[in-house]
From TrEMBL:
Compositional bias ranges of the Polar residues kind: 240-262
Keywords: Electron transport, Flavoprotein, FMN, Membrane, Transmembrane, Transmembrane helix, Transport
Domain of life: Bacteria
Domain called Flavodoxin-like: residue spans: 418-556
Domain FAD-binding FR-type: 570-733
Protein name: Uncharacterized protein
Gene3D superfamilies tied to this protein: 3.40.50.360, Nucleotide-binding domain of ferredoxin-NADP reductase (FNR) module
Molecular-function GO terms, alphabetical: FMN binding; oxidoreductase activity
TM region positions: 12-33, 140-160, 181-207, 366-390
Stretches the record annotates as Disordered: 230-266
Length: 872
């Protein structure tokens, strides 16, 4: 819930403040290179022709302007060591607290051309700081900067800890398509710029809020300069006097620079004293300093205290604001105070150089360039965020339309209505029901889709055409939620002679004794009640596409409608097999493995969901098949995209092969390998998808298809085709009611995902029943379970290891032992989850629960979603 809340705030602020942040990012990137761009545009102002004579001294420059421009009130004079670099003077200018800089020829004091581009950068600066609309704009940009800080922190939280690998966190994956690629671009590039945006936001707020600025000084352990406090006091007073925004901004002093002398103060020294001060300082200060510099600035003294303030820049300064300062007594010709930037502590450097920290030059030219690129990327997040938002909106509209039974197809008003009823445990039957509905709607037929547990007797009597899509669960059972229909309606005799029906029965030939059993029982009941079959019941083995097509063709033939081809949409994603560990060494049972897979994309699933694996044939099996039929593995098949060996990897190679003349004839005979399903034992925040897979062996002693592929044939690091299948009937409740988890063997996987999710939510009313053979060898995830127990996350734990004593003890025995406590938990609202083998465990547990709670109460729990099963 916390993550969902953060997500909602993240996208809402993103689509509202994103445009302003984009503008701030672009303008900030441009402004960060103001000095470099101005020097490039104004080489005739910053560079001069070198002459074979010394540069004019500060005193000579001052005297020159007193003669030719006596109106100039000179604040400071700057001279660079580079013979080709111009000198400059700073003069007092009304409304400009830092005065106006004028570039001059260092050999003649001739005024050089005015700097072009200053007005442009002033506009960019104001756009960046306050959108050029004064105090209101400043408040808007300040609020957006706070939002940027939230975006960075919430973005890390929302992404953490999906994956820790460098590739997943920092590599853009161009192979992704559509929304996945947009999300990947948004998240990966966002990770690149996290540090830059954190620094920009924290330093940007320095100029936005007094409370933030005061907090920064306290956190950094630096005392605020007195001059800065006084300047802020003046700013407040000037604002109260309705000073123009431009003037107010000019008077705001946030850093002390070489030209910070207040031009409003009257000079009490005469020209001779000023000339003496400048001559003495120029003649003696550099020698006494004892180090080289790139430029030096002499602040014209204004009081008769025999002192002159001097600022100078190192030959290789750390950044453009890394200035040293000194006080020089020109009467005694000695330095009375010297403050070197290099001698400052790091915290002092940061707080006295906030603008370089903000634009990145504080950390060097490489970081500054990367910070500029990060700022330019700001619009990317606004655009991709909006695209993701619009795609989410579109998907919600489509989902809502489907739920409200809206359709884009024109319906024939004279056509007879079809009712499609599904009985589904894990969602496959429901998907096929909706695909059938779409196929009929495309042929302009009116259709309604309904779950079998919602079907009423009146609907059976009032409809003349019903199609049933019925899954068989476990060993011939109806899906859990269908039990009420079986008991209340299928137990009755009805007159259904008006009804025409067809049944699509879903099952798995891995269970030959109960293959599609519920579908056949449903069809038999309809026939006994005199309903008329449109065609014989069609069986579907593990959602086989060919079987589904037979259903579609049969419907087309009996209705004389042109129905489009129909199948279950299965799109497998690419996952990497990261780890495989034997969970039960020396066990009496067959080996069981912990399988860990990591996605090559952003993956989401819920506790209780199912991983559907598309296995491949082992290399040995493919080579044996090729050798048996004398085929070349490197033969390119008709599509020209793959070799024969690659195509055979996904084909059933165990069926008899008839004589074939071409490779295409061979491949046409080979059925595709069926997929395999496994309960997921982890949740997304654990960074891996974890399965518990026990090896299965056929009559010939060969490893089973899915278990063999995952536990033996696939190499560590190999790609695995996997898709997440939603399993809502086994999802975790979204509140803190107690849960009782019951499972055996590899069924522990589905329960582990539920308990992991509960742990993250700090819900502690959890009770686990787990059974296996021997505690010494078959206690899967023992350390995790014991840790849960010791920390109170798992309040109750009952273990049943059947082979650890003479009389075998199973889970249903433990349930009966704890009958009273179990009833008390159920009375407190507990939800029961059962995961594991249907043969033995699940049926015995079901009987034990009936005996303890009563059949009526257990059925009520089932109907209200408080008795949920994932059994196989």
């Amino acid at each position: 819930m916390l993550k969902k809340t953060f997500f909602q705030i993240h996208w809402f602020l993103g689509i509202t403040a994103g445009l302003i942040l984009s503008l701030m990012g672009v303008t900030g990137a441009i402004y960060s290179y103001e000095q470099q761009i101005l020097k490039w545009l104004n080489t005739d102002s910053y560079q001069v022709q070198v002459e074979q004579k010394p540069k004019l001294t500060p005193a000579e420059i001052y005297t020159h302007f007193q003669q030719v421009q006596p109106s100039y009130n000179i604040n400071s004079i700057t001279i660079a060591q580079d013979p080709a670099a111009s000198s400059s003077i700073n003069i007092a200018k009304e409304g400009a607290r830092r005065g106006q800089n004028i570039m001059i020829n260092p050999y003649s004091a001739e005024v050089l051309p005015e700097i072009r581009g200053r007005e442009f950068f002033h506009f960019i600066q104001q756009l960046h700081r306050n959108l050029t609309v004064g105090p209101i704009g400043k408040q808007i940009t300040a609020a957006c900067t706070l939002m940027l800080l939230f975006f960075v922190l919430s973005g890390i939280y929302l992404r953490w800890p999906k994956r820790h690998s460098f590739k997943q966190w920092f590599a853009i994956k161009p192979q992704l398509k559509g929304r996945n690629f947009i999300w990947d671009l948004h998240a990966v590039v966002g990770t690149w710029v996290v540090i830059f945006y954190l620094v920009m936001a924290c330093t940007g707020l320095y100029w936005s809020y007094d409370w933030w600025r005061n907090g920064m000084f306290k956190v950094m352990g630096v005392e605020r300069p007195q001059a800065q406090l006084q300047a802020e006091g003046r700013n407040k007073k000037e604002n109260q006097n309705n000073q123009t925004p431009h003037q107010a901004r000019q008077t705001q002093v946030v850093e002390q620079g070489p030209n910070s002398t207040d031009p409003t103060k009257k000079n009490t020294l005469d020209q001779a004293q000023i000339n003496l001060a400048l001559k003495q300082a120029w003649q003696h200060f550099p020698q006494q300093l004892g180090q080289d510099y790139s430029s030096i600035t002499f602040n014209v003294p204004k009081h008769a205290n025999s002192e002159i303030e001097i600022n100078f820049v190192d030959v290789i300064p750390q950044h453009e604001r890394a200035r040293n300062s000194a006080t020089f007594d020109y009467q005694q010709a000695r330095i009375t105070q010297l403050e070197l930037y290099a001698d400052k502590q790091l915290n002092e450097k940061i707080m006295s150089s906030m603008l370089p920290v903000h634009r990145g030059s504080f950390f060097g030219p490489v970081y500054q360039f990367l910070a500029m690129l990060a700022a330019l990327m700001m619009p990317l997040f606004f655009v991709t965020g909006w695209m993701l938002y619009l795609k989410r909106r579109k998907q919600k509209r489509l989902t809502l339309a489907a739920r409200q039974n809206q359709t884009q197809f024109k319906i024939d008003p004279n056509a007879e209505h079809w009712l499609i009823v599904y009985a589904s445990q894990t969602g496959t039957a429901e998907q096929l029901a909706w695909r059938t509905a779409t196929s009929l709607q495309e042929a302009h037929q009116p259709v309604t889709v309904k779950a079998i547990q919602e079907l009423q007797i009146t609907e059976l009597k009032n409809n003349t055409q019903i199609l049933f899509v019925a899954s068989t669960y476990g060993t011939g059972d109806a899906p859990d939620l269908s039990s009420s229909f079986v008991k209340k309606i299928m137990s009755q005799s009805l007159d259904l002679s008006h009804l025409r029906y067809a049944v699509l029965a879903l099952g798995s030939k891995e269970y030959p004794d109960s293959y599609c059993d519920f579908g056949h029982r449903l069809a038999a009941w309809l026939q006994r009640n005199h309903a008329h079959a449109l065609f014989d019941t069609i069986e579907v083995d593990n959602a086989n596409p060919a079987d589904v097509q037979r259903w579609n063709q049969a419907l087309a033939q009996v209705t004389q409608l042109e129905l489009q081809s129909m199948q279950i949409d299965k799109t497998f994603d690419t996952w990497r097999l990261q780890q495989r560990d034997l969970l039960n060494p020396n066990s009496l049972g067959t080996p069981a493995f912990n399988i860990e897979l990591v996605p090559q994309h952003e993956a989401h699933w819920a506790a209780g969901d199912i991983a559907e694996i598309q296995p491949e044939n082992s290399t040995v099996r493919i080579q044996d098949f090729l050798k048996q039929h004398q085929l070349d593995a490197n033969t390119i098949i008709a599509d020209g995209q793959q070799t024969l060996a690659h195509a055979l990897a996904y084909k059933d190679l165990t069926a008899p092969i008839q004589t074939f003349k071409t490779i295409d004839e061979l491949l046409a005979q080979l059925a595709p390998l069926p997929s395999r399903e496994y309960s997921i034992a982890s949740i997304p925040s654990q960074q891996v998808l974890r399965l518990v897979v026990r090896q299965k062996f056929d009559a010939q002693g060969e490893l089973g298809l899915g278990s063999g592929w995952l536990t033996a044939h696939a190499a560590i690091g190999q790609n695995i085709a996997l898709r997440i299948r939603n399993n809502p009937s086994f999802h975790l409740i979204d509140d803190d009611r107690p849960i009782i988890c019951i499972g055996n063997g590899t069924g522990l996987a589905g329960l582990m995902s539920l308990l992991h999710a509960r742990t993250r939510l700090n819900y502690t009313q959890n009770w686990l029943f787990f059974g296996e053979r021997q505690q010494a060898h078959d206690y899967f995830y023992q350390r995790t379970i014991e840790a849960w127990q010791s920390t109170g996350v798992l309040q109750r734990l009952d273990l049943a290891f059947s082979r650890d004593q003479a009389d075998k003890v199973y889970i249903h025995h433990k349930l009966r032992e704890q009958a009273e406590d179990l009833k008390r938990w159920v009375e407190q609202g507990a939800v029961i989850y059962v995961c594991g083998s249907i043969q033995g465990m699940a049926s015995d547990v079901d009987q034990a629960l009936k005996d303890i709670l009563g059949e009526t109460q257990l059925e009520q729990l089932r109907q209200h979603g408080r008795y949920r099963r994932d059994v196989y």
